[in-house]
């Protein structure tokens, strides 16, 4: 069966052409993006002291307008370090026009946090995207449990709840899962049939519910967001709940929303009327060839409070060159992988995504953390694994066998350069929500 076309296409057509009755084409979208990019550059030069200095210093002259989208490569990047150091200077409006400020303290850093500023108009753009993006998986009358922060006006959960209301669905903000039992009780009480949450937390709900046999209304859709989505988690959710599992990609700097799966589940379709995306070689900064993996860079096209020009995300993906099964003219972005990559030596790299596919497939595992240390010249990788039930010995044996045959570990284990420690906790009362809404990463304690 051919999947229904993403609702984002009609939405973007309205923004690009003023109507969705006229067919959106790649050329029309690119012409719109080029025009918006020019407007944004004029705007930041006029309003932001940082961008006036930043663009001039790197030779981007105001009297040399961009002729084609590819000319964006002549503009300098902005980075998380710029955001930390010069955030106030990036602002293009008065302080009184700022409606929400989000503070982001990156784990492992001791310097100033990133602060991202949004006007009310900026937040309306996010709200509009949430409304349109959720049409892929909800219909009027659906009841959606939101396992994301939502107590504060303008927070992601509150904006999503309002976006769902525009779609005719009812959203219930539970917040990140700290007690699986409490979340399952609300799912049952409110007759929830759609779930939005953090991958590992939603996995925990599925496995606790399966064991405890908590009665729930049938779930038809789950949307996973905020972090890398392990394929092993998707398989388990489909197995336990018989639902469709969608992915969302976004970050605070994008205005929370970046892209979302269509019903074809083949990659994210992007907010291309509000954001312009590039894929670059992280070492050279140059664009990669079509379909090649690289670092995601985006430029805001419609933001008023704190526009971002060529912002380096640190995330890695590629544009999918094949047409999406849904038939849209919009580009598709491959699922974003885990951004942390730890060097093990001899050209081998290790990421949390690698560990996820070793640990999560095994029944009863709810969550885990990992840290790498060095002892007497040997790398020591230690896991703290939370399980829902007894018999960790059987799981331990299976996981060790997986490590012994894994390409990243096999030689290191055989040569005695790596030791793996597995510590299990079967007390589910110890569950605290894992890393919350933060990105899960391997804690590197090597010198």
Automatic annotation (TrEMBL):
<dbReference type="Pfam" id="PF00501">
    <property type="entry name" value="AMP-binding"/>
</dbReference>
<keyword id="KW-0436">Ligase</keyword>
<dbReference type="GO" id="GO:0016874">
    <property type="term" value="F:ligase activity"/>
</dbReference>
<protein>
    <submittedName>
        <fullName>Phenylacetate-coenzyme A ligase PaaK, adenylate-forming domain family</fullName>
    </submittedName>
</protein>
<dbReference type="InterPro" id="IPR042099">
    <property type="entry name" value="ANL_N_sf"/>
</dbReference>
<feature type="domain" description="AMP-dependent synthetase/ligase">
    <location>
        <begin position="106"/>
        <end position="298"/>
    </location>
</feature>
<dbReference type="InterPro" id="IPR000873">
    <property type="entry name" value="AMP-dep_synth/lig_dom"/>
</dbReference>
<dbReference type="InterPro" id="IPR053158">
    <property type="entry name" value="CapK_Type1_Caps_Biosynth"/>
</dbReference>
